[in-house]
Amino acid sequence: MMTRLKASLLAFAVLAASAGFAVAQEADQPKPPEQNWSFHGVFGRFDQAQLQRGFQVYREVCSNCHRLSIPFRTLEDQDGPGYSEAQVKALAATYQVTNDEPNDQGKIFQRPGTPADTFPPPDAFPNDQAAAAALGKAPPDMWLLAKSIKYERGFPWFITDVFTGYQEDGTDLIYGVLTGYTHKDDPQWNLYYPGHRIAMPMPLQDGAVKYTDGTPDTVQNYAKDVAAFLTWAAEPTMMERKRIGFRAIVFLIVLSVLMYLVKKRIWADAH
Amino acid sequence: MDGHSTYVPKSGIARWLEQRLPILGLMHSSFISYPTPRNLNYFWTFGAILSAMLGIQIITGVVLAMHYVPSSKMAFDSIEHIMRDVNFGWLVRYLHTNGASFFFLAVYMHIFRGMYYGSYKSPREVLWILGVIIYVLMMATAFMGYVLPWGQMSFAGATVITNLFTAIPLVGTPIAHWLWGGYAVGDPTLNRFFSLHYLLPFMIVGVVVLHVWALHVVGQNNPDGVDVKDVARDTVPFTPYATVKDAFGVCVFFIIYAWFVFFIPNYLLDADNYNPANPLVTPAHIVPEWYLLPFYAILRAIPNKLMGVLALAAAMGLLVFLPWLDTSPVRSGKYRPLFRFFFWIFVICCVGLGYLGSQEVSDSATLVARILALGYFGYLIVVLPVLGLVEKTKPVPTSIADAVLPKGVAAAE
What we know:
The complex is a heterodimer of chains A (about 270) and B (about 425). Chain A is mainly alpha-helical. Helix content of chain A is about 45%, strand content about 0%. In chain A, about 30% of the residues are buried. Chain B is mostly helical and about 425 residues long. At the A-B interface, α1, α2 and α10 of A face α4, α5, α11, α15 and α16 of B.
């Protein structure tokens, strides 16, 4: 029976490989290079300084066109950027937000933001229609961007990913796109964007954002930091998840071993 | 099968209850003294695993429904609210979405085990058919659940699947309109899918009760496929033997489930479903969840829409007739060498169809999908009926005890 099974597995491997022609066909669409992310894997953790730099890049560059629908208060998250309460309060107050309810005179009014408010849309584009009218295509809301885009992993990576725990395909693609403007004469040509035509012209230049912690002001660093920040924005509970997950799996392994020993003992007289 | 149904109420309260509603006795004979064949292997633990998964899906589902808003305007944001703001909401939601996949993983192991060991054969035909009904209900439930987050793939999936009904001549389009509650997938569709997604799991529970009832009437099949002849020699009581073995099986299954939930929770989800549904933008590549992919590949392999839908229905419907399509008197594949060969081919066809269902359409992919679909149907319609008539099977052991116990022990007992 084992030889049959092996033969079957072999047959399937041949089948899968022959069906993998789709991968070969897409050779002109290179995969973004995989980066070393601090939050990868079972013990991966967000790097707070990196998230703060990434937020700086978002705030100074991306936020001109991209919305980020997360509340200010989440920036205090100790598993995330970890800003202080006072910092977040001050930051929120620099934004003008539209109050949900009208005032006593029945007028909808603007007021300074509080930590409970969500980041308002970019000043230039109050809604998607306005953005689409000006830019041709509305820039996506960035709160889920790191989870809502991906690239084809292809065979056999889509299988090995199960074991390596690779979940950073969206993060790698963000980094890839931000560093993928390789045709200097064509600002809308991107090596990693599907189809290579991207509506967003190259958004980052060396030195465009001034880091204060000594990190070199390069496009690579901006791209890496903002990709990490957006990953946190898309999955702010990741640290809690991994912490609980490690304990849960250790618990289940111990329980399984005990169950196996009990089972062996009970079945001892049945054989 | 009444083996050791020997329940004697111990306390006064139990005796009082037992005389009025013999539910304790029912539990005792079903889950404690119930005789299970002593030669069962670990593939028989999937029944318990499936019960556990059904329980997890219902509990997490009820909690999610407390926070979810079934409206096209708020559904997507309410899921993110669960993920970010609800205490352990991310855990409940990832348990539920990955739970669906693991429920199907377990059900496929359970179905293929039944097919390999001939568990569908007389006298277990009704047991098998009830199982097929559960499977179809699971697919309907999973499909409607996938629509609820109201992401891009939810919307595209709902549109593709409900549009299948328009292939039916004359009444197809009115049926689709009736399902949608309008002229396209929209708010009314989402609302009714939520309602049905909450209802169907309890229908599954009902059919599961019938499934277990039927199982306990005819008794479990076993790897050797021979009937229990002597309860004392061939079987062991369900508790503690099967309960502890099942508990071990469930624990190991949960380790893999937990790995997905905690460390690769989005591996099985489509990234595009993290984009809110937008009827004006159709995803470039519409794919259903993995557990529906083989059927999706069969649907796409056939150029004519109506024929494709009929093939899809036949691929599921034929399973009902499996007990009569297989003509062999020998149950277990263990004693049918030729059957085993074709069985693995059938498994390869199913997996291959699943892979192709996930790939974009191309001429060569369609050709391979057609060959594999031919293999799928060929196994059920041609191979199984013919094989039973021509195959030379190996000698089957005279009893379960003879098959598993060392010769001396079997004789001594």
